Amino acid sequence: MQTQLKKADETMSRRLDHLRTEFSEIRAGRANPAVLDKVKVDYYGAPTPVNQLAAVSVTEARTLTIQPWDMSVLRQIEKAIQTSDIGINPQNDGKVIRLIFPPLTADRRKDIVKDVQRIAEDTKVQVRNVRRDVIDKLKAMKKSGELTEDDLKQGEKKAQDLTDKYIKEVDKVSAAKQKEILEL
Question: Could you tell me the pTM of the whole model?
Fold first, then answer.
């Protein structure tokens, strides 16, 4: 029973980490280097993340500066950003690339908040699915005689407590992201 609950805890924790990663990639009108995490540059035939080819820094609240260590890769970085889905046109001055994030309109903020709520709800469903799977496994263990009725009830309660803990954490992370988006 303990191994089932431990696996469930690890799985729920991974779901929460994934949620945080997704939220870090949401553009909220503020410059965030995480928007470049999925952008890969063809560097000598190998797809390479931008942060491995250049120094990425936030110079102002809405400006990201990308300064490549090897100037020959400047054009490839620019091209990779243009073809990515981040929706910002890079400005290349020959030495650095600047990404200027436009301010968000009120309607766009509301749309982003809806996306955040949807992603959070999907994560909650995934957490609840983990709980359901654990309870199903515990019931199967009871049926095969590995657990007593009391152990089953105790396991179900622990699975529910674990689920409640992670649901509360998802709500907290979601509320913080919504607040960040609406206050900009």
Answer: 0.70
